[in-house]
Amino acid sequence: MTTTAKTPPSTALRPPIAGRTAIVAGNGQLPVAVAESLRKLGDNPLIVAIKGEAEPELYAGEHAEISIVELGGLVKILKAEGISNVVLAGGIRHRPEFRAALRPGNGNLVALYRFLRAFRLGDDGLLRAVIATIESYGFRVLGAHEIVPDILAPAPGTLTRKRADQESVANMHAARQAAIMIGSLDIGQAAIAIGRRVVALEGVEGTDAMLQRVAELRHAKRINRKGGVLVKCAKPQQEVRADLPAIGVSTVENAVKAGLKGIAIEARRTLILGYGETVAAADKAGLFIETFEQEPS
């Protein structure tokens, strides 16, 4: 059985990272958390906000803004600002129109062409190609967890007051196997099992939309049994410097709406955005949050 781990991870910060860091910021709270941690370390990060994606609060500090179709200008910005390190953080809702992007004025056309070719790949292939392109110009790409190590889910255990019952353990196993399978196909990172049967797989719509879909199935009485578990884990071939699976308060809230009993995530390879708030929300709702070990290769 799992052990109980109710205390949050250590709040100790790592030593300052050599050189200035830029955060290429998509949507969500992860770029905000990375920026705050860098400032606590004494760094003055440059925010490169993706237009239409980045959170408004990121514009308060030193920043630049580019649209997806101006990614060729990213290299120029990084060089002009003396950047050494780059963090890719946050999501991207919309992929660019390939031909519309290839026009004068969008920065380094060689870099832009590489970026946009990558957007034709699956998510993992996209991230690997984008990282390779950035590093080919001499920049170092870091994972968000390398700057905010405490954001990673802790060692296997139970994070909440409530633990998984026998039925939930069986659901965790079923959903985990499904999540690993779709991850190996570069489709998604999450699955939901109810009554020991997988009822939903994550696709490009993301976890919250999948949970909403399950809530609608409940309401339509397409899913008769109560309970169920959401499982999130990294893809077997995951590029760990970007797009690690993540949960937060909204995940808990949507799991409640979907009628689930709990959430299980992969230890040390899943991000918890707002650890204290997320665990408190689960405790208040009577849900469990469990962490499990990576599948042996």
UniProtKB/TrEMBL annotation:
List the coiled-coil residues: none
Q: Where is the LpxI C-terminal domain?
A: 156-289
**What residue intervals traverse the membrane?**
none
User: Which residue ranges does the record assign to the LpxI N-terminal domain?
Assistant: 21-151
Q: Where is the signal peptide?
A: none
- Pfam families, sorted: LpxI_C (PF06230), LpxI_N (PF17930)
Q: What domain of life does the UniProt record list for this protein's source?
A: Bacteria
InterPro entries documented for this protein: LpxI (IPR053174), LpxI_C (IPR010415), LpxI_C_sf (IPR043167), LpxI_N (IPR041255)
**Cited PANTHER family:** BLL4848 PROTEIN, LPXI FAMILY PROTEIN
Protein name per the record: Phosphatidate cytidylyltransferase
| Natural source organism | Phyllobacterium bourgognense
